[in-house]
Amino acid sequence: MLALTSSKSREMVGRKGLLPMIDYTLLEAASNSFSEFNVLAKGISGDLYKAHFNEGITALVKKLNGGKQEYEREFENEIDLLSIICHPNIISLVGYCFHAETRFLVYEMMENGTLEAQLHGPTRGSALSWHIRMKIAVDIAKGLGFLHEHCNPPIIHGDIKSSSVLLDSEFHAKISDFGLAVAVGSQNKANLQRSAALGYVAPEYVLNGEFTEKSDVYAFGVILLELLMGRKPVEKTAPSQCQSIVTWAVPQLTDRLQLPNIVDPVIRNTMELKHLCQVAAIAVLCIQPEPGYRPLIADVLHSLIPLVPIELGGALRIMERLACANQESVSFDWHITIDLPDEHGKS
Fold first, then answer.
1. Are residues 185 and 249 in the same domain?
2. Same domain, residue pair 72 and 98
3. Are residues 36 and 168 in the same domain?
4. The pTM is what?
5. What is the pLDDT of residues 279-298, one digit of tens each?
6. Looking at the predicted structure, is the pLDDT value of residue 116 above 50?
7. Stretch (H or E) spanning 140
8. Nearest Cα residue to 147 out of 76, 78, 93, 216
9. 122 plus 89 within the same structural domain
10. SS3 for 17?
11. SS3 of 103, please?
């Protein structure tokens, strides 16, 4: 990516090396003056543009919304963290740019944009099969697991949402939007003046400002509901009324008869009922009101991997399951289980 660096670049030093500041004129030319035709996705924090540089180099440019004071800390925070974090399920930052009051982040290219755009945009999730959705969930869990379990100190992302999940040409998922991320033990209310996106915020943060790894787990649970149902985290039910996907879904997630009916029509009847119930059970645990009842993201990951075909990086052997379709079901050692009630209300 050296070809993207201007001679006037200043540099920010991270443990991975030098992160270049890219000249605005290069970004402008590569994005066709930030043309609407180059918009890959629109988000709360900013719009994503496809950028085609010289020598066949492509990248993803995020043009941040808001004024300098409002987003300066988040902009610097994202640069600081992504300059030292390296993981297959966390987005790579290749550069950044200042132009007047506007800030830009330049990511590796992610051809399929955001998960939000894929689920709720014009295609309405038609490109996302059941197995692809489970693969995306596993990828997000892997990224969060790295932040929670393998960073020292652990990092709380703080802004997990479907628009923070970027998808490459093969729908591998990577987490972005680290503006609100904090290291465990360093956060305080002053650092969290702007809350995360509506619909993903854990109850404990709304009530008392508590902000932990379990807050990320709650947001992950909301994304899991989006993947299952194809619904937005918050939807209007009347001109002045909204309903969260959590409030709407929970009573139906624990009803075996009702559960298949609330699944996104795009994927309805394309999965085994046992697998659907397992994902519903995981989602229910993740969105528990009490943080202590939510699982660790590592346990969520271990429970999701058996639902993803081996070809997509999981542990599910599709051909073997097809061969056993008329025999007794294959047994998995689930790490998370919930006894869902049957049609008579019994567990």
1. yes
2. yes
3. no
4. 0.85
5. 999 999 999 999 999 999 99
6. yes
7. helix 130-145
8. 216
9. no
10. strand
11. strand
